[in-house]
Specification:
This protein has a single domain (36-144), classed as Lipocalin (Beta Barrel), CATH 2.40.128. Helices cover 12% and strands 30% of the residues. The protein is built from two helices and eight strands; from the N terminus they run αββββββββα.
């Protein structure tokens, strides 16, 4: 009796109605771990700041800095000045960070530069001699105030 019940349950579990007469499932692929940003160009995400919940990205072709949020909404976009008193001469991709909503850039000639979200320099820390900047783990804003 028990064997018959097991047999009936196993047979019922294995037989299911086939709604697709061709025998093939309709596969679909969807990417759920990405953010779509309305930006024409190639953005390289460089950093994420949990305090401001913004992503720091850069277009390496135009050197434009783009800050966007989790929904992909661009909050600010600017380019570093190439000449004048606020020029950033050597802020390449490996010398940028986003700390407490401020873009931090390492310039070989001027030291550590803190920018607001509009691209204006708010603070400068001069470093004598040879120096190296590796990003967020080296310091926080509280340690350089």
């Amino acid at each position: 009796m028990v064997l018959r019940c097991i047999w009936v349950v196993a047979f019922a579990a294995c037989s299911r109605s086939n709604n697709n007469p061709s025998g093939f499932e309709n596969p679909s692929i969807s990417i759920v771990d990405s953010i779509r940003v309305d930006y024409l160009g190639n953005l390289y995400v460089m950093d994420y700041d949990p305090s401001s919940q913004l992503y720091l990205s850069r277009n390496n072709g135009t050197d434009e800095i783009v800050l966007f949020d989790d929904s992909g909404t661009i909050k600010e976009r600017f380019a570093f000045q190439q000449d004048g008193p606020h020029a950033v001469t050597s802020a390449n991709g490996f010398r940028l960070a986003l700390i407490e909503g401020k873009v931090v850039a390492m310039d070989h000639q001027r030291g550590i530069l803190f920018f607001n979200q509009h691209g204006a320099i708010q603070k400068r820390i001069a470093l004598p001699g040879e120096h190296f900047f590796s990003g967020r783990d080296e310091f926080t804003l509280s340690s350089v105030r």
